[in-house]
Inverse folding.
């Protein structure tokens, strides 16, 4: 259990020692005092609710209440106007000098904190016992352990050294990617057009800090994965959502494609809706943007995960004039922990990104880059993808069966032809944060659709990639009951 507040997050993951002779309530008083004295919990930080703390500590609520009352009586904690408790003072201890006012510093950084719901999800994902029905990651059961071991065994002979690498990354990987992108996706790029990034998220971050200025207009599908991040908003750019129909982004609704604007799109197996931009729409979007000299940032995180047929060619594969910056990643196909993504674009662009990357982290992990090189050049990656596609398709079918069983009267949904996601649209209004909270109580962690959207929606992003299929079925059954209950209110 954790507490979450913008700028003031307190994470509690400690338990009293019940074997210790010190009374439990005293252990709690000491634990909280130490946290505050050490500066871990700055003044103003809010504590989780007493009920949540009692649950985390594994004690009765009355024990927590006694400890809190004592701390309040010392002036260390105070009651909050919202009914909670927060840190009031750290000056009781004269034996030590005062820590800096960390909350002031924490609020000063330009990068915005995550949305509260996302902070909660990011923490709860590491708590055991929850069924994660929205997680955008492959299940640990799908981790190709044998393949990874095989590749790692070959690596000692392949790796000549593990020094720093140049701005574009490991040259061997650049060559391997250029070849793979040409053969696999019809993208014409030389190694000099490719920059290896520490995940495609870093690609996004670099584009936002290197190439755009404050006030730039960024257009995205509405909803979009990008809206759930603070990357562009932190750099004070204006995000605009563009509606979608079943063929994808309705580009004609882009109002101002003038200077300094950019289109960010996920044409294949869109996150969060699973939509695939049609062949025709891709051509039109290219014409629209090229005629206005509006750059496109194409995010192809899921393009390899097709089930029955490949999606239409990427926008980058149609790009003859260098209008598209393309991003790929190994995170959704194999392992996000490798932190390997790639950005493909005109040389001037990738050089600029590479230069700033050198000032940021001096390169993605060399071990991961060697591993990715071996995966691609051995042909093992393509063979592995075939198995993964079959497995994901079976999981999609399982999810669809459960949805028809439990959600017919209460929601509509799409049948994705690849990727991870089903966009579940509820037929009636609900207070999504209450559904989220009730689901959490029932051991289900979900991704509310409004995290990705520009206005309120009544949708949930489901992922069939993570949860065990039987667990997903059980969770969907319970969720349907919860939603039905809330829709009646
Ligand atoms: N783009 C999209 C569309 C994604 O869904 C994600 C992961 N959720 C990313 C980028 C980031 O992936 P990476 O691990 O490569 O940074």
């Amino acid at each position: 259990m954790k507490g979450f507040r913008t700028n003031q997050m307190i994470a509690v993951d400690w338990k009293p020692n019940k074997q210790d002779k010190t009374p439990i309530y005293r252990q709690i008083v000491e634990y909280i005092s130490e946290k505050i004295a050490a500066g871990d919990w700055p003044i103003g930080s809010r504590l989780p609710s007493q009920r949540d703390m009692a649950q985390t500590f594994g004690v009765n609520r009355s024990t927590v209440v006694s400890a809190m009352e004592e701390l309040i009586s010392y002036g260390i904690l105070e009651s909050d106007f919202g009914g909670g408790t927060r840190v009031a003072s750290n000056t009781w201890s004269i034996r030590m000098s005062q820590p800096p006012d960390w909350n002031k510093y924490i609020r000063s950084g330009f990068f915005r904190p995550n949305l509260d719901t996302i902070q909660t999800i990011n923490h709860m994902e590491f708590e055991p016992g929850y069924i994660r029905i929205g997680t955008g990651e492959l299940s640990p059961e799908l981790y190709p352990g044998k393949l990874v071991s095989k590749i790692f065994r070959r690596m000692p002979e392949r790796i000549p050294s593990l020094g720093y690498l140049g701005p574009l990354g490991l040259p061997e990987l650049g060559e391997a990617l250029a070849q793979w992108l040409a053969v696999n996706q019809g993208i014409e790029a030389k190694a000099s057009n490719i920059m290896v990034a520490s995940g495609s998220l870093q690609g996004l971050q670099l584009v936002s800090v290197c190439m755009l200025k404050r006030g730039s207009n960024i257009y995205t599908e509405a909803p979009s994965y990008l809206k759930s991040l603070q990357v562009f908003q932190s750099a004070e750019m204006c995000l605009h959502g563009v509606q979608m129909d079943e063929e994808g982004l309705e580009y004609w609704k882009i109002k101002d494609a003038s200077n300094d604007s950019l289109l960010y799109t996920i044409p294949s197996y869109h996150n969060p809706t699973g939509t695939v931009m049609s062949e025709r729409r891709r051509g039109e979007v290219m014409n629209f943007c090229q005629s206005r000299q509006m750059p496109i940032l194409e995010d192809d995180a899921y393009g390899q995960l097709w089930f029955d047929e490949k999606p239409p060619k990427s926008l980058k594969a149609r790009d003859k004039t260098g209008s598209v910056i393309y991003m790929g990643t190994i995170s959704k196909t194999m392992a996000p922990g490798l932190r390997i993504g790639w950005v493909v674009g005109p040389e001037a662009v990738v050089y600029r990104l590479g230069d700033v990357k050198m000032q940021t982290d001096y390169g993605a992990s060399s071990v991961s880059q060697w591993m990715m090189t071996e995966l691609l050049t051995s042909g093992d990656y393509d063979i592995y993808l075939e198995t993964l596609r079959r497995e994901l398709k079976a999981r999609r079918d399982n999810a669809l069966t459960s949805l028809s069983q439990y959600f017919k009267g209460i929601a509509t949904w799409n049948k994705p032809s690849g990727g991870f996601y089903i966009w579940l649209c509820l037929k009636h209004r609900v207070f999504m944060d209450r559904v989220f909270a009730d689901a959490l109580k029932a051991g289900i962690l979900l991704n509310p659709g409004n995290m990705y959207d520009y206005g309120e929606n009544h949708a949930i992003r489901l992922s069939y990639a993570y949860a065990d299929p039987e667990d997903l079925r059980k969770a969907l059954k319970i969720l349907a009951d919860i939603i039905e209950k809330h829709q009646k209110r």
